[in-house]
Every structure is written in structure tokens, then in C-alpha cells.
């Protein structure tokens, strides 16, 4: 199997960079459409439009209606095509960015990804997570390219609710463990290739960065402050985690997350919050040393992340519920099979109940 590494062409991060979008996007086209929901449009709409127009872009704006569904993608694509846009700029969270990636692929135009929260690793990736109109996970769409430009304004990131930032840390914390499992098993990354040393090393740097700067970054963001730690963790949550998971591969943590989404009771927990239970379960599944697992639990508590099933809405899970999660996590297409040993549902269920017990003991 050949090794594959891919990434966005340009990643730009810093305080106030939203106002410089025209400079960074200049070579990508001449007619832009900005896609954002009405809340995000209020925050960045004028700044982005002004900067693009200063750089000779014809600019239109479009409201994102909240769901990355096939129907929404079609609506946005039709409108962007009518405008004659050759660049789509998307601002917001994972769903707005994923919808725009699919539109860019469909119309064969450039994509600028502008995350306004550092909550997932969607901004740099070449895939879209497609949901039904009602928000249930449907499938992954894989595109032929990553965004041409990822623009991250850390002042906007630090001004967003802290829960989104914490969730991003959780999503990024999984990256190293999943990439390393894939590397050890010679499994496939998201591009269907083997891991490069680069993908593996970036995933490890992601983990080290979170451990060194995570706690102080969360405290800074609680106060809307941009510090060097916030810069470091934003880069870990967005760039290092994004490249690390795509080129490094996913394993048990995200499969267990996908299993957890089967239960209605977990729907109020964010993606990252559910992923954290997946990460801790993966460590137990892999038989990591007690001291190591406990250290990651302590770190999770320091950041304010879930360590028990009750923390993600499962106060008293029944055997049936745990069975449902474990079965869904182990279906054939799941990345859990990137673990360096065969994984069966009973092992996942046992890991979940063990994590729950350990988590309760540390609270
Ligand atoms: Zn994730």
C-alpha cells in the first residue's frame, strides 16, 4: 500500500486575520460567495465582504440553514452557480464548512474554510459528513481536494463559547492515539493509503501541544483572551488534528463515538465530548498502563471534559444500550478495525463500563 499525505494549500492563523481575507484569497478567483448562518454572518459578514471587495472580488452572501444535508448542498450549489462564483468562502462550525466543501467539489470551484470555533477538525479536511434533514448521521462524502485556504482568526475563536474550544481539545486528543494505532497496524488513512512519517509525527505533536498548553488555553478562552497558549491549542485543534486524522488515520475512539450517537440520550453532548469517552475506551481496549489511563482521565478533568457515561447523558445505561453502542462501533466499515488486534463488540462494551468506573473514581 502506498503512503499518502494530503493537506490544504494554505493555512493562515492569527488575531484579526478575518479582515485580511482579500489578501490571502486574492489568487483564488474574482467572484466570491460567503456562506454563513445568520449568527456567524453578524460576526464576520461585513469584515469579510469589505476585505474581499477591497481586493476586486464581486461578493455575494448566502445564509446557511444549519444542516449539512444533500438538499442544502444542492440549494447552495444552485445559487452559487447562478452567481457565477469561482470561490466559496464558508464561515462557521463543521457543518457550514462541510456543506461548502461539497459545493466546491460539485461546481469545481475554490474553497476557503473559515472556522469561527475550534471545536472539530473539519476545517482542513477533504471530506464532508452528510446528515439527514433531521440531523441524523448519514454518510461521509470524500472529495478530490482539501480547501485551498484555511483562515483562522484567533480573536473570533477566543470569543466563542468555551465549550466549543474544550470540545475541540477532546477531538484533537483522540488524534494521536488513533493515528498511532493505525500506524502500528499498517491500517489505512482517510485517503486509502498508509501513514507517512509526517502524518504520524504531526499527530504526536498535536498531543504534546495539548498537554503543554491545554489548561491555560482554556482559562484564557474563558475570559475571551488570546494568548500564545490559545494560538498553540487552536493550531492543535484545527491544523495538527486535521492533518493528523486525515493522513494518520482514525481507529477506535471515533468508532465508539459513532456508536454512542445511536443513543438519543447522548445527543446533547458535542462531537468532542462523545469522542473523549471513545478515547478513554480505546486506551482501556489497548491495555495501556493504569497510570497512563489515569493521567489522561486527570487531564480530561482539568480541561472540563467528560470521563463518565453520565457526563454525556447516559445516567444509567442498560445492557441493551451498551450493546447497541458496541455493535455499531464494530460494523465492518468502522475505523475501529485499524486497531492492531481484532476488536469485537463485547470488548467495546467492557471497555465502556471500565472507563465509567475509573472516571467515577477520579471525580
Ligand atoms: Zn472528530
TrEMBL record:
All residue ranges annotated as the Alcohol dehydrogenase iron-type/glycerol dehydrogenase GldA domain in the record: 8-154
EC number(s) per entry: 1.1.1.6
Q: Where does glycerol bind?
A: 121, 171, 254, 271
Cofactor requirement: Zn(2+)
Task: Provide the cofactor note recorded for this chain's UniProt entry.
Answer: Binds 1 zinc ion per subunit.
Amino-acid positions noted as binding NAD(+) in the UniProt annotation, renumbered to this chain? 37, 94-98, 116-119, 125, 127, 131
PROSITE patterns xrefs: ADH_IRON_2
Enumerate the GO terms in the molecular function aspect.
glycerol dehydrogenase (NAD+) activity; metal ion binding
Per UniProt, the keywords (alphabetical) are: Metal-binding, NAD, Oxidoreductase, Zinc
Does Oxidoreductase show up as a keyword for this record? yes
Q: Which SUPFAM superfamilies match?
A: Dehydroquinate synthase-like
Q: Which Pfam families match?
A: Fe-ADH
Q: What family is this?
A: Belongs to the iron-containing alcohol dehydrogenase family.
Descriptive protein name? Glycerol dehydrogenase
Species assigned in the record = Halosolutus amylolyticus
